[in-house]
Design a protein that fits this description.
single chain, mainly alpha
């Protein structure tokens, strides 16, 4: 069976360390399979973006039509992200992710058969649903890892998964070039290339169902059926969603995520075309330049999570919020410089600078998410994730209304810098901070105990 039960172990704790080169435990299997699944989803989500110059030529697309395609690619994700968070609370991340991968592969294949602008727009809209994979990824690691490392875990799997966007920017033009080199026409080449991410999604769905479980104790549906209390209590679905929506911190982080992840998505959609149109680069070179931005996700998002976990040891939850504020300011300044860059070299340098801050801010945002409300984790993760896509849609409309992409980038930089104050507005009560500190200390004690046990077991 696709969803065979992994069994129940009520004594299994959350992981207090990240054993990067191990897949022996349910926690580390979830860690590795989630980032791989998210990588595949992100690759598929943006597989068409670096091929837009070819698609534009084939369909004779106008500037407004291209803007519409970029907007629809992220718009539907808003709604799906709102839904998958509560679905994780009810059915568990394993089932939710598996079905998202299988259903999401359909429009990826469909894009290869689009013959008109309207059908291409429809499939691009539908593909956006797989962007909700991020919420499931963050949910899964949040329930698998203890407070001392959860920020690092969330940021690392998110960053490595996000790198799929950069990989798509660099690899999809190379796939097309290889097909053309074999004698395939450009018109057929980009269509055939879309089968690469589609097949990868189907394969990943079976890997996710086979090798993961929802929590260290077992699958959520099995735990609930056995009468075992979960972090969210007995509440499910809309009750969890309403609880998350009633917490003002959720909306503050939704705003910051819109200004960092939203910008990230926006750049993925326009970067290759921007380098072609503004600096006259070839499609392959533009893809490589744009791929630098996505490649930063391999370490920068994790760096944001690691920094958040480290500062929390000394400054607690307030320190996590202050770090996010600083990163958002850096991102805004970098965006303004990118918009003013007058050469390829300066543009890549500025893009690398603001890209570093952008990815780190994404990691620092979701390093805070597990601490907003443990009883409404799915709802909180879904709403904040949706905020990221609202930011991407808003950036798309700003680009459509701006005289030039450069003007859009400069305005966007000032908006991001202003949004940084939302991070400062995230505050916690003394009781909340005390409770979370107790959980953190317990996790640190468990890790020290584990370390002593390992050392005692070693031969003298």
């Amino acid at each position: 069976m696709l969803f065979a039960s992994p069994g129940i172990d009520t004594a299994a704790p959350k992981a207090t360390r990240i054993d990067l080169f191990s897949a022996a435990t349910p926690q580390m299997r979830a860690f590795h399979v989630t980032w791989l699944a998210f990588f595949v989803c992100f690759f598929a989500w943006f597989a068409a973006a670096p091929l837009m110059p070819l698609i534009k030529a084939e369909f004779g697309l106008s500037k407004d039509q291209i803007a519409n395609i970029n907007i629809t690619a992220v718009a539907v994700t808003i709604l799906v992200r709102l839904v998958v968070g509560p679905l994780c609370d009810r059915f568990g991340p394993r089932r939710t992710y598996t079905w998202l991968l299988l259903i999401g592969a359909i429009p990826v294949f469909g894009l290869a058969f689009a013959q008109t602008y309207e059908t291409f727009l429809f499939f691009r809209l539908a593909i956006g649903a797989i962007g909700a994979s991020f919420v499931i990824t963050q949910y899964h690691t949040s329930v698998m890892f203890a407070p001392n490392v959860v920020g690092t875990a969330n940021a690392t799997v998110g960053g490595w998964g996000n790198a799929g966007g950069g990989a798509a920017q660099s690899l999809m033009p190379l796939v097309v070039a290889a097909l053309v080199g074999l004698g395939v026409e450009h018109v057929f080449g980009w269509r055939a290339a879309m089968f690469v991410p589609g097949v990868a999604m189907v394969a990943m769905a079976f890997v996710y169902a086979r090798y993961t479980q929802d929590t260290p104790q077992g699958d959520i549906v099995d735990l609930r059926a056995a009468g075992i209390e979960l972090d969210g209590g007995k509440a499910t679905g809309m009750a969890i969603f309403r609880r998350a929506a009633a917490n003002y911190r959720t909306w503050m982080l939704a705003a910051t995520y819109g200004a960092c992840f939203g910008v990230e998505i926006f750049i993925h959609n326009i970067a290759a075309s921007y380098y072609v149109d503004r600096f006259g680069l070839s499609l392959t070179n533009a893809g490589l330049a744009a791929g630098i931005f996505g490649g930063l996700a391999l370490f920068a998002r994790a760096l944001g999570g690691i920094a958040s976990d480290r500062i929390a040891l000394r400054k607690g939850l307030d320190g996590r919020a202050l770090l996010l504020f600083a990163l958002m300011l850096g991102e805004g300044v970098g965006l303004v410089l990118f918009g003013h860059a007058g050469s390829v070299a300066l543009a890549i340098l500025a893009m690398t600078m603001f890209g570093l801050f952008t990815h780190m801010a994404c990691g620092a945002t979701y390093a805070l998410v597990p601490f907003i409300d443990r009883k409404a984790l799915g709802g909180v993760a879904g709403l904040i994730g949706a905020g990221g896509n609202i930011g991407a849609v808003a950036a798309g409309f700003l680009n459509k209304a701006s005289a030039t992409p450069q003007q859009c980038l400069i305005i966007l930089g000032y908006v991001v810098a202003g949004t940084a104050v939302c991070a400062l507005a995230v505050r916690f009560s003394a009781t909340h901070k005390s409770d979370e500190r107790a959980l953190l200390d317990a996790a640190l004690d468990a890790r020290r105990t584990s370390d002593r046990s390992v050392n005692d077991a070693l031969p003298a």
